[in-house]
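Q: What would this complex look like in 3D?
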Amino acid sequence: GAGVSQSPSNKVTEKGKDVELRCDPISGHTALYWYRQRLGQGLEFLIYFQGNSAPDKSGLPSDRFSAERTGESVSTLTIQRTQQEDSAVYLCASSLVPGINQPQHFGDGTRLSIL
Amino acid sequence: GQNIDQPTEMTATEGAIVQINCTYQTSGFNGLFWYQQHAGEAPTFLSYNVLDGLEEKGRFSSFLSRSKGYSYLLLKELQMKDSASYLCAVRETGPHAGNMLTFGGGTRLMVKP
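A: Here is my prediction, written as structure tokens for the whole assembly.
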């Protein structure tokens, strides 16, 4: 597709369940990012993948959060034993190369609601 | 680490000009981005500044002063569709910086008739 694609668009689950969120970056984009956005707040960085380098996981809030990316393609963000505080929109973005002026292109996000 | 501040909300009138300010503190500055985000939608790229001065793109302009840690986004001839949140984001230098951005909390702009 032409843009970053995320699925599902909405996810409602019970506290304690695991969830998996998917991101398809723009073809050819080597860099991929996950962010979390709570209602009415700014974007909170979670994790960054660049090519085959080790990911930057410095933004992951706890060990319940993990993410994987195979090569330069799809990425999945997994949240284990979900808590109500995990309710947010999870945004994925990709960029062509981590060049100095390359903007990040965002998907529409997954709205996660923990009951 | 970084600290990015921008006003939470602003209101302006259709046809007018509005300036949205962003101040930042960073250990190694490597560029500033502005994004627009309509409610319930993804952020979309508006502008990029890495050198001091003004970048103009149609009705939107962005200014940067690195010595002051300050940027603003200027919107001219406001239209109702400009009602959105405007996000300031800073990239810093460093071995893991890559293209990683730190975002401010966003400024919610309401344009009134």
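A: To summarize the key features: Chain B has a mean pLDDT of 91. The interface with chain A takes residues 30-31, 33, 35, 41-45, 48, 50, 87, 89, 96, 98-106 of chain B (CB under 8 Å).
Q: Very helpful, thank you.
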